[in-house]
Batch of 3 targets.
Target 1
Amino acid sequence: MLVTTTPTIEGHPIQSYLGLVSGEVILGANVFRDMFAGLRDFFGGRAGSYERVLQDARQRAVQEMQAECDRRGGNAVVGVDLDYEVIGSKGSMLMVSASGTAVRI
């Protein structure tokens, strides 16, 4: 399945628009708290283990979005937007969301 942040896919005319699709993943309090503790320890450097957690969350959110597109009969998602939001009463969780428009090309 093609997934792009652009509104069109060059060389692939859009036959039909199937609506908004999205996927969300929420990382719990411990992961998020540990991430900031780790970042303090690695100030000025990269925290590889936490980057992998965020990459996995992003990948899972995109996979959920693709699955919803597939259920609607689409074979591509255009105009994809990725968002990262701190949520919870004390900002103890991180939500990664992917949204776009399901299309048939």
Target 2
Amino acid sequence: MFKKILLASDGSGHALRAAHTAVKLAGYDKGGEVTIIYAINGSASKSDVLTEGDPHERVNRRKERLKKTEGVLQERGVQYEIRIVKGDPGPTIVQYANDHSYDVVVIGSRGLNGLQEMVLGSVSHKVAKRANCPVMIVK
């Protein structure tokens, strides 16, 4: 059982499966706490600014992507918080995990940007190589 879990999510199907795994690791009401981290890279952030001029609408749209992930945690009564951060997802997730001493990072094997993963190497692979704690990659 893990007490402090970092769950990387972008709202994709793989991230939702990772959320189910994070719930199991938290031990359902056994005191595990989950931080959902959503890292937004620079190009996505710029695109959001161009398509959504209102900053509040951008924040709401980003939170909306995490609703299903939140639902999984709420359904099982797992305590959680959400952190939306800006930066290249791999290094940003690693830095956050290392700076906050998590027991484990749970991340989906693929995210919303499949092309970037194929060309640059997957976010999950980068996190697994550089995080100072165990990393569980969920297919």
Target 3
Amino acid sequence: MKNVAVIGAGTMGNGIAHTFAQKDYKVQLIDVSQASLDKGMATIAKNLDRMVAKERITEEEKQRTLSNITTYTSLEEGVEYAGLVVEAATENVDLKLKIFKDLDTFCPDDTILASNTSSISITQIAAATSRPEMVIGMHFMNPVPIMKLVEIIKGYSTSQETYSTVAEISEKLGKIPVEVNDYPGFVANRILMPMINEAIETLYNGVAGVEEIDTVMKLGMAHPMGPLQLADFIGLDVCLSILNVMYNGFKNPKYAPCPLLVNMVMAGKKGVKSGEGFYDYSESRKAENVATMFK
């Protein structure tokens, strides 16, 4: 299983591709947009340059990592020889179901299909295929090349063999796999998103300002990043999607997204990706903030 296809060249997708390629897997990075692929590869190269500058890898290792990645705009061509597919597309149920239905058609019969979804039911995704026993959740954390955790989510029909294989691959990547049951939000986001949502509610209710809320959580709770800044890096649209999945899944009002979050997303204020969220991100500031995550 040395051929790995990664679907989606965005923040998570290019990070996952980078991580596999650095461990000498042959990676097929797939996206519908060539511009997105070019941007994703530029991000990988930039992050590798930082690692070279910090003497974590050599220039030779950087070049080998890049040479291990091939890009495709065709899903069918990109997954033709994949032993493992990791889907990292937008957190949208209908899109993921469509992708997995297509993967089931295009991939070899023994290909494991994994989703990097941060909240959507693996059982539901698996039901779109004829191989539910080979569908699993592989939820990486951002930034993927740095963060150690991988949540491994077994759907209702996921086999133990599939789980064991994916857990072993995660360890080969230098990650720590943690088995999680298939409920909305899993563990990471079931705990994280209500905290972020409550921080937004605290701002919405006028208890304190953005920097004050983040400072309290950083200095008082030893968080490396305040919840509002973290929301900006995750993407406010992604936070909203995850909260909606949990709210719809549990029918519990504690997961209902704050009106301020809803309005900001509708206004196009999505955080770092849009240049503005709870903080303002000029190009220089954006580069500075992203760089701090790779220290």
